[in-house]
Design brief:
It is built from 18 helices and 16 strands. By secondary structure, it is of the alpha/beta class. The structure holds manganese (II) ion.
């Protein structure tokens, strides 16, 4: 018998990106969206167009960049939010307007400060209004799990009547329990008369560690769209993790009897990309994508797994795309071996760019002897360092020791302008960062997190540094990699400052744009 398909709706770029410090640039969002397309997600929620002009542009650019997935834009059940979404979808035919309003007593009375009847009216109005512009409208009854059941039934029935083709029953606050949540979906399926006219979606949060279990119980009871994120990223304790949902349905197909369009062999690569770009690390014991997820440590287990993989392994590392045997390149590897490996890692290098890329590779290979996949990824990530508005690290000189005052001299350049500064500090990193502050003219920057790790093996390994900095209310992350950890630290710090300047520049611009628009409106009146 043909199995039902479950629609995978990824919200890494919306709910995931809302996490403090995980903010992404437009280009980083596009990079993730393209990887999500390769992964095979059906819907990409790309942002919240009304929240900022930058978000609106990102949503529209993502819709342009990807071909297959539907692109969803989130908006409150308010006409001006829907207009922003419509603006973002001007040039695409695959947009989905996703509108929401809180339906629990807490949300109706404390957030919207109105009555249940008025919330119902606004929900219907929003769906109808959105349908004027877009054939694909999703409605979410925010905080559905704390909403009165009879009222929820009315909302679902009426929004479907108004034209919603997907209705989401989110557990926005992570309060539901699997048995109860499964029952809620089942009761809705049995009570709402027109429920077959829409896809029922679920959006679960992990506040009690139940997001995956709740989503799957909903699937067992008839939900056919799961909203989730890569690595379980998302508000507070996060959203249901895509990799857990998809692999559970696959490994336990005997129970779920459903399929998805996900190419599971892209899971690992997607997880790594999201980790790298958001700077949000995955815990080592995380299901499916954690570093230890396939590491059998106990002697008894290791012995068994060598005898037969099925003894303790329920899925293979290959099934999520962990390369079985890593190919190690050295200085003796040829140009085409490099091209082939980069291709495998998702980087298209044409014959024209090959000599330059190979030269970079040889510099690393000379320092490191063995070049691993992670080294190549970091080499490629560093490639975009010459464009407009980006700080380049020209050189650093650091003197340190236990009996001298650590001193750093750095030279940086941006758009062709060079600047050299020196500073002393409590340690070599502190001295370097102070010198960078002076050279960039940045003040009041707080370093809120600094992490260093070896990305490959051996003492000559590539070191990766992740920093998080804040100024006023803006917080960004930056990362840098090098065989020298001080250089990696300086690069990470500079990349964070570049991001901060772009973000705050963007905000200043958008404020100016809003002012301009208001002036125009005033002039018209
Ligand atoms: Mn959410």
């Amino acid at each position: 018998m043909a199995q039902d398909k479950v629609i995978i709706f990824d919200t890494t770029l919306r709910d995931g990106e809302q996490v403090p410090g995980a903010s992404l640039t437009k280009n980083e969002k596009i990079q993730i969206a393209l990887q999500l397309e390769k992964l095979g997600v059906d819907v990409i929620e790309a942002g919240f167009p009304m929240s900022s002009p930058g978000d609106l542009i990102s949503v529209s650019e993502i819709a342009k960049a990807v071909k297959k997935p539907i692109i969803a834009g989130l908006c409150r059940a308010v006409r001006k939010d829907i207009d922003a979404c419509r603006e973002a979808f001007k040039k695409t035919s695959k947009g989905r307007i996703h509108t929401f309003i809180g339906t629990s007593p807490q949300h109706v009375h404390y957030i919207t400060r109105t009555t249940e009847e008025e919330v119902l009216r606004r929900a219907i109005d929003a769906v109808k209004y959105a349908r004027n512009y877009c054939g694909d409208v999703e409605f979410s009854a925010m905080d559905a799990t704390r909403t009165d059941f009879d009222y929820l039934c009315r909302i679902v029935e009426e929004t479907i009547k108004a034209g919603a083709s997907t209705v989401d029953i989110p557990d926005s606050v992570g309060y539901a329990e699997p048995y109860e949540y499964g029952n809620l979906i089942k009761k809705l399926m049995n009570t709402v008369p027109n429920i077959n006219k829409a896809v029922i979606a679920v959006h679960c949060h992990n506040d009690l560690g139940m997001a995956t279990a709740n989503s799957l119980m909903a699937v067992l009871n008839g939900a056919r769209q799961v909203e989730c994120t890569i690595n379980g990223l998302g508000e507070r304790a996060g959203n249901a993790a895509l990799e857990e949902i998809v692999m559970t349905m696959k490994v336990r197909n005997d129970i779920y009897r459903t399929t998805t369009n996900i190419n599971t062999e892209e899971i690992y690569r997607t997880s790594k990309l999201v980790t790298r770009l958001t700077g949000m690390p995955v815990q080592p014991n995380k299901s499916v994508v954690g570093e230890n997820a396939f590491a059998h440590a106990s002697g008894i287990h290791q012995d068994a797994i060598l005898k037969h993989e099925s003894t303790f392994g329920i899925m293979t590392p290959q099934s999520i795309g962990i390369p079985g045997h890593e190919l190690v390149l050295t200085a003796r590897s040829g140009k085409h071996a490099l091209q082939h490996r980069l291709n495998y890692l998702g980087y298209k290098i044409g014959e024209a760019q090959l000599p330059d890329t190979y030269a970079k590779f040889l510099t690393i290979a000379d320092k490191k002897k063995e070049v691993f996949d992670e080294d190549l990824v970091h080499m490629m990530e560093g490639n975009d360092a010459s464009s407009h508005g980006i700080y380049n690290l020209d050189y650093i000189y650091v003197a340190t020791g236990n009996k001298i005052v650590p001193t750093a001299t750095i030279e940086i350049s941006k758009d062709g302008n060079k600047n050299t500064k020196a500073a002393t500090g409590d340690g070599p990193v502190d001295a370097m960062f102070k010198a960078i502050n002076e050279a960039t003219g940045e003040e009041n920057i707080k370093l809120t997190d600094y992490q260093i790790k070896a990305v490959t093996k051996g003492t000559e390994a590539m070191g990766e540094v992740n920093v998080r900095i804040s100024r006023d209310n803006n917080e960004v992350t930056g990362r840098g990699a090098s065989t020298d950890i001080l250089e990696a630290s300086a690069k990470a710090y500079l990349s964070a400052i570049t991001k901060l300047e772009k973000e705050t520049g963007k905000k200043a611009e958008s404020k100016a744009a809003v002012k301009k628009a208001n002036k125009k409106k005033a002039a018209k009146k």
